[in-house]
Amino acid sequence: MAWDFSTDPDFEQQLEWMRKFVAEEIEPLDLVFRSPAAPFDPASPAAKAMAPLKQEVKSKGLWACHLGPELGGGGFGQLKLGLMNEILGRSRFAPTVFGTQAPDTGNAEILARFGSEEQKQKYLQPLLDGEIVSCYSMTEPQAGSDPGQFTCRARLDGNEWVLDGEKWFASHACIAEFLIVMAISDPDVKVHEGSTMIIVPKGTPGMEIIRNTAVGPKDEIDEGVHGYIRFTNCRVPENSRLGPAGEGFKVAQSRLGGGRIHHAMRTVGMLNKAMEYMKERVVSRQTKGERLADKQMVQEKIADSYTQILQFRLHVLYAAWLLDRDQSYTRPVRREISAIKAAMPGVLQDVVYRALHLHGSLGMSNETPLMDMWQYVPEMGIVDGPTEVHKIVVAKDILRDVKPSDGVFPSYHTPTQREAARAKFAAYLD
Ligand SMILES: Cc1cc2nc3c(=O)[nH]c(=O)nc-3n(C[C@H](O)[C@H](O)[C@H](O)COP(=O)(O)OP(=O)(O)OC[C@H]3O[C@@H](n4cnc5c(N)ncnc54)[C@H](O)[C@@H]3O)c2cc1C
């Protein structure tokens, strides 16, 4: 009987250390360094503040906890990673301090799996060491969730790839040492069969960041970290390819699943934080002679939030457990990852809204982290593919092997079933 909800005592000790370390040493960074790039930019003042913290994480053997030991990680597996990421989800800076921030995690994964020795030496090692930042660039201005509409081209000219086209929302392009770009290398076949991943180092002539887009209501254009990029006759050597030509989407598959489940794990951390705020608020605030906590409509909000968070958390950990079991993105793993990806913005919306609402005007203000959390609601519904697309994956998978009814009436048609049941129990019936 292997269903078990307990944590090994040794590992629980490590989690306890992480909780304290994140609360005392990392969460204060969120209060001081506010720019969107601060948690990632090696040139930001925050990077200097994070350096000794990274060392401490390394000395505890918790660096790059998403990776196996062959790549310098602890080889914790996904279930333990889930419990760790719940803690890291409490701060924008914690994933970087622990060497497990997106999109570098997924980029390291594909470099490790598909990169040449030269690419690994040049990019993978410094990425794993947290010395450089990378970018993954697939979305285009006219198309995101439908790659069939991508147009950015890569054509071979002698021993060079020549890129032409535009990319959109390429996170961290402005601070990245290199971009991994998905481009159409064979326009005569379907996009999924004719695209190639190509590494473009920063500063390559012909690559231009048109502007940096921000998430949320930032006043200044160009304040964000999501690059709108144009390639014009941008040339890189043929061996800049990551994986075989035409197989860019196969390479991409091996990174996207990980990114999605890690987001969901960290979202549990954010949900827990919103719940903590909500609990403190309702036992502290008085109205009409009693605490908010004593009002039944408030109690309903607490109970619903608790149940939704627990359900979501268990689903995320179940998906992690499946991934540990199968060790690859099998069909059941992909279904559960899409299911939690689709559920994530809804749970976040419900819980963060209740927390905001129960704080009244203070909740709406810039004097608690709640409005920052609110911005993650739509973000989690879009990043790594919109909710609808993930629901389609879940529904198709659930329905794939379901057989239609034999006749006009379904297999569970009561009169037909009753006839069979009566025959089965005929000896006992008059
Ligand atoms: C914070 C953030 C970071 C990102 N970082 C990166 C990055 O680093 N690299 C990168 O390449 N991209 C990145 N993206 C882009 C992201 O992958 C795309 O935004 C996403 O795939 C959706 O594409 P789109 O924005 O073009 O929306 P569209 O594809 O235009 O979809 C818009 C809406 O149409 C509806 N819709 C779409 N398809 C269907 C369907 N099949 N059925 C029903 N309704 C549908 C949904 O409501 C959807 O929200 C990032 C996005 C965000 C928000």
Describe it.
Helices cover 50% and strands 13% of the residues. It has 430 residues and is an alpha+beta fold. It folds into three domains: 9-101, no CATH class; 134-242, Butyryl-CoA Dehydrogenase, subunit A, domain 2 (Beta Barrel); 250-399, Butyryl-CoA Dehydrogenase, subunit A, domain 3 (Up-down Bundle), CATH 1.20.140. It has a four-stranded antiparallel sheet with strand order 2-3-7-6, with no helix packed on it. Helix 3 (77-88) crosses helix 7. The longest helix has 37 residues, at 248-284. The two termini are 44 Å apart. The structure holds flavin-adenine dinucleotide. Flavin-adenine dinucleotide is lined by residues 103, 136-139, 143-146, 169-171, 215, 226, 379, 382-386, 388-389, 392.
Question: Quick summary of this structure?
Answer:
This protein has 430 residues and is of the alpha+beta class. The chain is 50% helix and 13% strand. It has helices spanning 9-32, 45-59, 77-88, 94-97, 104-114, 117-128, 248-284, 296-326, 331-358, 360-364, 370-382, 387-399, 414-424, and strands at 134-137, 153-157, 160-171, 178-184, 195-201, 207-213, 226-237, 286-287, 290-291.
